[in-house]
Structures are given as structure tokens and as C-alpha cells.
Specification:
The protein has 382 residues and is an alpha+beta fold. It is built from 12 helices and 14 strands.
Length: 382
Amino acid sequence: MKDSTLKKPKKRRFLRGLMVLISIIFSFSLILSYMASYISPDKIWVIAFFGIIYPFLLLINFFLLIYWLFSRRVFFLLHLIIILIGWTHLRGLICIHYFQKHFDKTNSIKVLSYNVRNFDIYNYNKDWTFNFEKRDKIFDFIRNESADIICFQEFSYEVSGKFATLDTLIKLQKAVNYQTEYTSNPVSSNIFGVATFSIYPIINKGKISFGKETNNVCIFSDVIINNDTVRIYNVHFESIKLGREDYNLAEDISHINKPDGTNQELKKKSVRLLRRMKNAFIKRASQARLVALNIENCRYPVILCGDFNDTPTSYVYHLISSRLVDSFRESGSGLGQSYIGLLPTFRIDYIFHSKEFESNDFNTIHYDYSDHYPIECYLKSK
């Protein structure tokens, strides 16, 4: 009887000590996620990994805060303080505007940004003919939105014309002035890149090249709006390029204890995924620096749309948001999720603008025609 009564306090002390250790680990991890905004992946790429999992680290720290609160231990203050330190990062994930000011939209610019995943061109029918279902739904959506400025990422053009995109879009919308830039092999039947459409006349076109070893690019279009020149950037930063084996990694983990060589294969897949993430982090950082430099040297007001493939707790986002205003933070509401792929809590698509504009009614439109949601907002000169 005496031995059993002694074991209970020891067990409780062990569990309490374990929870303290877990709290310290996840508190420190959350701090590292904050640092990801300021430390370039060129220097310490692992920090960028903590930035990308910030939503999960935040959630874990919140549950640990609740645990210590109900345990009546002052340890909850650790999590509370660290969560509050990262308040600006939290606002990049969730926004609430109770008293949002609405301006007259008749004199505003409606901006739409959308990664269309190549209009689902590779989703063939069983007889290997083109399947137009997703493409036509995107067309209908674009027609109904009737935006003034539209920026597409992962824009595809099928050379034979059997899977029409560019010519059809020009006919069905009012934004008939356009600029395209393709990064894939020009001798291929399918070419891919980015496209910007505008109701305003385009007086100058340019591109920021990210080099030959990437399929990503940034273009800029100088347009005339109310007798003023405005530069529109359309950017698609480096993606991780996940393959089918990467998406199946979670399923493979469930077989980790099988004695059939699965463990070794799992290790190879994990290393391959980490290597891809590392390369993408580093490439995005250098690409973002090129865009940030161009913005600094631009003498016009700026609108920037794009798929960053990175979250608000990232070095890439910090580079751009330190120069421009994030329209979601200014006029969005709720959870800013824009990606519906492997990790569907991510906000990786953005509309930024310079301080000459104010934004209103930022909206994430929950249509699953792609692996990204389209985003839009209204901009007006101050």
C-alpha cells in the first residue's frame, strides 16, 4: 500500500515535468517562427520551416496555455506572453474589422488575383481528349466578376488552340489590354506563365527575370488610371514542386513500423521533401529581393498581386509588406486561407498596394476550380 502511494506522486511529477519540457520546446519553436520573417533562408534555411508551420505552432501553444490555466500554474503566462509578442503575425493569419469604412465603389479599381493551375489542362477525359469543365467554370467566374485588373498565375496557353484560354478571355471580359510572359519551353504544345489583364491602357511592359533554372517570373505593366501612371506587378514565386510521392508521405508514415524496408524508403522521401523545401525557401528569398528592389526604384504608385508560395510569417512576405500595404490586413476579415492543397490553412496569395491607395472589401472567394482560391479587393486613390 505504501509503495503504490509513493508511485502516484512520482508519476505526477514525471508527467508535470514532461509537460514543462513540451511547453519549453513549443514556446521556443513559436519564437523561431517569428524570426523567420527577418532571417533570410540563404543564411539559416531551417528557420523558414518554422515560419511555414506557424499556424500549427500557434494552435499548440494556445492549447498548452489552456492546459496550464486549468492546472492553475503560472506557466500559462509563458505561452500568453509569447503569443502576444507575435500579435502582428497573428493579424497576418486572421483579421477582424468591426467598423470597416466603405467607400464609393463607382470610382474604385476592382482587382482580382487568381492562380488557375493551368486551367486544369491536364485533367484529360478517359479517351485523352481535353476536359473543359474547370476551365469553363473559371471563364464564367471571370466574366461575372468583371474586374478592372486581373492577374493570373500558372496561366497556360495551348498552341494549337484546341484548349483556348487567352483569346477567349479577351472576348468575355472588359479587361482587354493584356501582358503575358511564358517560362516553359516555347517549342512545347503547352506553355505556362503569368498574365495580367487591364481595362486601362498599358503604356509599358517589363519583366523581372528570376533566371533560367526556374519556371517562375514577375512581370510589371504600367497603366494609365485617371491620367496617372500606376505599375501593376504580377508575381509567381518559387514553389516547392511537390510530387505524388510527397503527397503520399503522410500515408507512408503510418507504415513506419513495418519490417519491409519501408523505414528506409520513408527516410529517403523525407530527405527529398526537405531538400525541395530548402531549395524553394532560398530561391524565393532571392526572387523577392529582386522584386523589392524594383519596387524601391519605381516612381509610380504600385499594385502587386501574386502567388508567393509562402505565408505571412516568412522572409519573402516581410520584404514585400515592409514596402507595400497588405490589402487583407487593411480590409479583409476572417481566416485568410487561399490554398486548398496539402496544407489548407495557408494564406499564400496576396494583393498589395502602395500608400497612395486604400483598400476595401478584400474577399477570398471559396471556389474550388483550382488548388488556390481567387482573391479580390477594391482600391481607391486617397
